[in-house]
Amino acid sequence: MASTSDIRNGLCIKYNHDIFKIIEFLHVKPGKGPAFVRTKLKSVTTGKVIDNTFSAGHKIEDVRVETHRFQYLYPEGDLFHFMNVDDYNQIIINKNTIDNPGLMKEGEIVTIIINSEDNMPLSVEMPASVILEVTATEPGIKGNTATNATKPATVETGATVNVPLFINEGDKIKVETEKGTYKERVKE
Predict the structure, then answer these.
(1) What is the pTM of this model?
(2) Which whole number is the average pLDDT over 88-104?
């Protein structure tokens, strides 16, 4: 058993007969009344995100987890195939477990959190950013760098990312995986 002082991003807990991963938290100490922790929890089984508030000192049941590095192999409908980079065992994970599956390209190395008790995969953590090639977008116009205007661009994984007007087809861009936003153009 843990308490609210042990809450951190990425912690997996049992709550309401399900396993949730803490994706955001904030310790609040109001001027009047007891302290509490405001959290944003993501269900690892359904992918649903809920807000919850725990009072200070509240006991929470944490889940023992292990992290392993896996290589993304290929998609098959809503299922994604991964291979452990250490022992080459393969596992299949549902699309709901992955935070931003549209930004994952084949061969990408990810970290998968696995429940130690029953060896069930709980979540897939991608690198902070990925480099993807733009496959389709409207042509760029020279001199359009002063404004913050954006246009949609399709990347090699099929996802759509809003990019600045000067980005063209064939350009490689760095995309922040947490929000799915454009970060910068990558020169080779």
Answers:
(1) 0.71
(2) 85
